[in-house]
Amino acid sequence: TGTLYSWGCGTFPEGGMDGAIPALGLGPDAEDRGGDPQVVSLQGQGAGDEDVHVVYVAGGAYHSPVLLSSGEILTFGAGQLGQLARQPRYTDRSNLPVDPYPAPVQGLPQSSDDKVVRVGGGFYNTFAICQSGELYCAGENQNQQCGNGPANLTQMTLVDLRLDQNEEVTSTNEATAKDPVVEVAGGYCHTLVRTLAGKVLTLGCGDDGQRGDGRLEIDDDVDDEEEEEGGSNNNPRPVVSNLDLPGQKRAVAVAAGANHSIVLGEDGVAYAFGANDLGQCGITSGDVASDVNVHNNADGNDDDDEDEEESTAIALPTPVLLPKGTGKVVQVSAGYAHTTLRTEEGRNFVFGQNSNGQLGIGEKDKNNNEGGRSDGKDLDEPVVEPMEIVVGRL
């Protein structure tokens, strides 16, 4: 029917438009008690027409973008970093800007020949893909996850996807004209962009390997002595970079967690990279060469000191290994620190954080006894390798 519903996470029962409450789109008196889905009244231009309906929805940390069949985008929720792409009309109890009602974004092209066909959400970002294949972004840009520009974008802004940002800027976005954008996924501070030709462009943070360029935070740091002497990083990460899958395979889907990334290749293999501290990449140490373990202490030297910190980040796209005979992966999805894969045979595999039961792995141990999970571990422990779940089985 194209009707929009929302429901809360149940973590802000005291009300006051804090947390997830404005992102429900149910007005300032809404309660976040984890209740049943409720209809969201759409107040945007044309939203009252019988022929106009919701065709696509996305979610951020505490905001929600909604695409109408008219090509109009409505947003509601938190707006402190510009993620609503318009002026919020309310404040929460901390005096931060919010808007609990849907309203149209600003900054998109007005041409009826270039309507928005898809929306996306990052933690603090709203994305829009137009028929022309151009990408627009609003919200936090402190890590250039929306490309070059101000730290916060308060309206939808065209993303410059040129790999060489020093080229002369023309009146049109040459990068998307040659290879239109078809999909976008946003994490905490990084962005994945998939094009029609199957390329993946990455922007924003890469400290945990989530851009898949083989670099981690320590690769970008300036030595303390150099910094004191006014030194700088001589090899900064590009604003936009091209992701290379093994064998130069084309990408057919992308997904972004908070600090990890999943790309589905044309070969039906899911490739993971980024933070893996909770098993969200589904890759165990020693599986492949690109599993990076970095030991770095305060002195920048590798040794066995007690203060040494270990990183399990995956710096390059790495295949997620599923059981033999599983078949090709056809769908990928990522949460904050967990991942879901679906195969062509309808089988579902999950891995990563499970502190809130988000993996749906059940409540029985390996001996089919109540009180545990299928591998015998505690329910809230991370799942570090792909585990199959049977959807619909109690």
What does this structure look like?
4% of the residues lie in helices and 33% in strands. The longest helix is centred in the middle third of the chain and has 5 residues. The two termini are 29 Å apart. 44% of the residues are buried. About 7% of the residues have low confidence.
Class computed from helices, strands and strand pairing: mainly beta
Helix % is under 10%
Strand content: 25-35%
Please give the count of helices.
3
Run of helices and strands: EEEEEEEEEEEHEEEHHEEEEEEEEEEE
User: What does the largest sheet look like?
Assistant: 5 strands, antiparallel
Mean pLDDT: 84
Runs in which pLDDT lies below 50 for 5 or more consecutive residues are 222-228, 288-309
Give the overall form.
globular
Entry summary:
The protein is mainly β and 394 residues long. It contains three helices and 25 strands. The two termini are 29 Å apart.
Write the layout of secondary structure elements.
Blueprint (H helix, E strand, L loop, with lengths): L4 E2 L31 E2 L14 E4 L5 E6 L4 E6 L11 E2 L5 E8 L11 E7 L2 E6 L4 E6 L11 E7 L15 H5 L2 E6 L3 E6 L4 E5 L12 H4 L3 H5 L12 E3 L7 E6 L3 E6 L4 E5 L19 E3 L12 E3 L2 E6 L9 E6 L3 E6 L4 E5 L30 E7 L5
Antiparallel strand pairs: 1-2, 3-4, 4-5, 5-7, 6-7, 8-9, 9-10, 10-11, 12-13, 13-14, 14-15, 16-17, 17-18, 18-21, 19-20, 22-23, 23-24, 24-25
